[in-house]
Amino acid sequence: MGMSTGNNKGGVQSDINVTPLIDVLLVLLIIFLVVMPIMMKMETLEVPRKLNDTQEMPDPNASQLTVTVKKDGSVVFNDGDKDMPIQAVDLSKTLRPKLEAMHQGTEKVVFVDFEPEVLWKDVVTTMDSIRSLAADINHDEIKVALKVKDETAPAPAQ
Amino acid sequence: MTPLVDVMLVLLIIFMLMTLIMGRGHDVNLPKAHNYSQEKDKMQPVVSVGCVNKPLCDQTELFIEKNKLGPINEATLKEMGMQIEAAWKAPKNPDGVGRVYIKADEGVTYKDVYPVLMFLNKELQIQQIDLAIAKDSEEK
């Protein structure tokens, strides 16, 4: 009974064939599922660009700012004249006026040096705090340079 | 036949994307930082300095991409330099030429990474080294 339009084989099929649609949708779903973590992963893979020491010294007239991190976490700051032992938390406080005092046009480079036993974590943290200071005082051109010693290996801790 | 092709295509796509999301280089605990620059992968060579005894981290190993080169010494550094130069000669992305991405475990000490940095600086004339970090999740 009902609306039989005929009992021949090639009769009109009333429902749409959804199989290819589902296929396409599944593929899209998978693509999006997988693309999401890529985007997030890209964030974790971000690269802070640290300037390694260039052979030519920046500016002979400009006093070099050197930050030396000891293995006990203390920091020695040198502004070209004298060493100043400071605490790691005071680093940005000490560094800030020095950087602000530097004239425009001079390349602002902060040299960093570490004792051999300093953990890499602290190396990055130090560079990070210099960098955040640079972001604070709107000097994007502030570069963090690695202080290169003449020896092939860092001087052994005494 | 068609369902088979469908399944194969889906698998192909899955594997293509899996290779993309897998991080490059050896898997290490990266140090965390707030300030970083964000760049797309330029297919530059990835050098990793990893720990052998994970919690202690008293020994380190050098990796290029995913290949282990062994403890850091002159020979492995030289091998690393050769592979980096080879990667630059046949670049997958010309933007990555002249650049190296360093992934050092947060537990290694400065003296482990320093020879690598110096080698890159002295032998390969690199002046900018990209250091891998992880985003600090405690950011406000």
Nutshell version of this structure?
Chain A has 158 residues and is α/β, with parallel strands linked by helices.
Give helix and strand order of chain B, one letter per element, not per position.
Answer: HEEEEHEHEE
Strand content of chain B: 15-25%
H-E string of chain A: HEEEEHEHE
In CATH, what is the class of chain B?
Alpha Beta
Number of domains of chain B: 1
Q: Determine the mean pLDDT of chain B.
A: 80
CATH architecture annotation of the largest domain in chain A: 2-Layer Sandwich
Could you please describe the fold and organization of this structure?
The complex is a heterodimer of chains A (158) and B (140). Chain A is α/β, with parallel strands linked by helices. Chain A has two domains: 15-46; 65-146, Nucleotidyltransferase, domain 5 (2-Layer Sandwich). In chain A, 34% of the residues lie in helices and 16% in strands. Chain A has a five-stranded mixed β-sheet with strand order 4-3-2-5-6, covered by helices on one side. Chain A is elongated and about 100 Å long. Chain B has a single domain (24-135), classed as Nucleotidyltransferase, domain 5, CATH 3.30.420. Chain B has three helices and seven strands, in the order αββββαβαββ. Chain B has helices at 2-21, 74-89, 110-123; strands spanning 32-33, 46-51, 60-64, 67-70, 101-104, 128-131, 134-135.
